[in-house]
Structures are given as structure tokens and as C-alpha cells.
């Protein structure tokens, strides 16, 4: 092919790598997680703001009651995981689109995934190890509840 002719529209630019197409699976994940996040977030908002006393009922006791239930623990952890991976994948896409230097792009993508992984780990630990009585002293309003 000479310099003054164009390649056919479907001609591959470079040989395709073997293995899974990670960009395709990232694209699919964004769509599926987006739909699940809409359901999870609106369910979370409905239970927290519409049922019971509404926004006036949100206090430490409400959170303690929710985190006592494995159903709500898993609901919140699933929402946390999906949201953080969804956001990190979106930031990776933006980084790949706008950062042209390969080494800078690689470092930033690694930093995004490390930050997301750290936040997922920390958030999961908080949800599953939440103890309202940790550090409560005798002059606290929670003292009576924690003595039971």
C-alpha cells in the first residue's frame, strides 16, 4: 500500500493481542454496575430517608441497628465495592484518554487502582468489624447499652 491510499475501514491497525479483551469487559462492567448501583443507592436512600422517622431518625443508633443485620452489611458492602470499582474504572478511562506519556499513564492507573483497593479494604473492614461499644467509657451515653 502506498502513502496516498487509505486502508479499508475494517483493516486492523495492529495485530490483536491474545487473551481476554479487558476494554470490552470494562465497558460491560460499567453498564451492569451502573444499573445495580441505581437499585442499591435508591434502596439505601428509600430505607434511610422515607421509612420510619425520615431524616430525623438518622442517628448513631440507626446506624448501629442497620450494621447489626447481615443483610444491610452486605447491601452496604456491595454498594461500596461496586461504586469504588465503577469510579476507579471511569478514572482509568479518563487517564487513558488524556495522559499521553506512557509511564505517567501507567503510574496514575496503578495509583487509581491502589487507592480503590485500599478504600475497598478499609470500608469492608469498617462495615464488618463495626463495634459501637469500642472505647465507650462510664461517662458516655452509650455506657448502659454496652453493659448489657
From TrEMBL:
It is found in: Membrane. Keywords: Heme, Iron, Membrane, Metal-binding, Transmembrane, Transmembrane helix. The chain crosses the membrane at residues 26-51, 71-88, 108-130. It comes from the Bacteria. The keyword Glycoprotein does not apply. SUPFAM superfamilies: Fumarate reductase respiratory complex transmembrane subunits. The keyword DNA-binding does not apply. Pfam families: Sdh_cyt. This is Succinate dehydrogenase hydrophobic membrane anchor subunit. It comes from Microbacterium terregens.
Amino acid at each position: 500500500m502506498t502513502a496516498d491510499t487509505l486502508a479499508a475501514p475494517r483493516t486492523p491497525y495492529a495485530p490483536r493481542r491474545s487473551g481476554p479483551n479487558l476494554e470490552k469487559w470494562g465497558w460491560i462492567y460499567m453498564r451492569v454496575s451502573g444499573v445495580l448501583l441505581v437499585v442499591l443507592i435508591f434502596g439505601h436512600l428509600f430505607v434511610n430517608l422515607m421509612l420510619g422517622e425520615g431524616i430525623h431518625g438518622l442517628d448513631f443508633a440507626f446506624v448501629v441497628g442497620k450494621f447489626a443485620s447481615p443483610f444491610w452489611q452486605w447491601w452496604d458492602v456491595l454498594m461500596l465495592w461496586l461504586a469504588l470499582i465503577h469510579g476507579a474504572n471511569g478514572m482509568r478511562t479518563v487517564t487513558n484518554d488524556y495522559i499521553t506519556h506512557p509511564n505517567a499513564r501507567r503510574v496514575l492507573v496503578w495509583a487509581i487502582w491502589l487507592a480503590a483497593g485500599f478504600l475497598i479494604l478499609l470500608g469492608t473492614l469498617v462495615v464488618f468489624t463495626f463495634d459501637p461499644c469500642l472505647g465507650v467509657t462510664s461517662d458516655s451515653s452509650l455506657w448502659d447499652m454496652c453493659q448489657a
